[in-house]
Amino acid sequence: MSQFYNNVKTALLLGLLTGLILVIGSFFGQQGLTIALIMAGVMNLVGYFFSDKIALATMRAQEVGPGDELYEIVQELTQRAGLPMPRVYVSPAAAPNAFATGRSPNHAAVCATEGLLRMLNRNEIMGVMGHELAHVKHRDILIQTVAATLGAAIGYLGYLFMWGGGSRNRSEGNVLGGLLVILLSPLAASLIQAAISRSREFNADKEGAALAGDPMHLATALEKIHAAAHHIPLDVNPAFNAMFIAEPRNMFKSMANLFATHPPLEQRLVNLIGKESTGMFRHAA
Q1: What pLDDT, in 10s, does the model give residues 36-57?
Q2: What is the number of domains present in the chain?
Q3: On the CB side of 218, how many CA atoms lie within 13 Å of its CA?
């Protein structure tokens, strides 16, 4: 039932994002609508089959194998969870963060940044990767990755129209394109937020903590990640925010925060360890 529900939700989201692409194209007449229709078809296919590769390439992630500490941590957690072994990647980004991607548990990949591996101890890394494997187990990763890919593509489409006016004059095209860029990024983010319930983050936190063996491992990891995010940005398109274990802080921060895809840190800590124990976290907010 859970897989069926996720499949239906994915289909609805793809339909919404496709419709948004067609609306953009309609601003530029019949020719623009035709081009948008072709682009929508291509983007849906690419999003389904290649969104994981796009996400990993965006983060400049490199695959690691046996003998690497992160690989061994993921292997241990995967065995506990009864999941197929995913591909394991490390991104050179300095900001501490992590994500899972892929269209199914059999085609999954998990990625941690070098910043996360440097900042957290082994137990905390286990908590983080347990959270990501919980997303894999719950089959959240398809809708997260496809939505992020299409959302980013829509933002790019806005930039494309900003530099060309279609069948109208260039000046008007630039003005309309500029408005599209301003409006579409948060709109795409809000569609992702609507598609990915915050309860999924709470569920992944709980199950990830259970896989790691102690909820404090993930709780202290989340506190460190959120504290570091205030001064170490992760410059990714806001459409990708929902994929990460914690909301990235970037150049679009103020706009992206209007459509936050993650619950507040304090709520996540309460979910993990209870309200009485959260006073030890100085950065909870």
Answers
A1: 777 777 777 777 788 789 889 9
A2: 1
A3: 32
Q: Is 132 a catalytic residue?
A: yes
Give the pairing of strands 87-91 and 62-64. Answer: antiparallel
Q: Residue 174 sits in which domain range?
A: 2-268
Residue pair 284/266 in contact (Cβ under 8 Å)? The answer is yes
State how far the Cα of 133 lies from the Cα of 207, in Å rounded to an integer: 9
Q: Is 278 a domain residue? A: no
pLDDT of 285 above 50? no
Environment class of 206 (CB within 10 Å of its CB; exposed 0-12, middle 13-18, buried 19+):
middle
Helix (H, G, I), strand (E, B) or coil at 226: helix
Residue-wise pLDDT for 171-180, tens only, equals: 555 555 556 5
Residue 273 lies in a domain: no
Establish if 110 belongs to a structural domain. Answer: yes
Domain assignment present for residue 219? The answer is yes
Active-site entry in 124, 132, 207, 247: 132
Q: What is the CA radius of gyration of the chain?
A: 19
Contact between 113 and 93 under an 8 Å Cβ cutoff? The reply is: yes
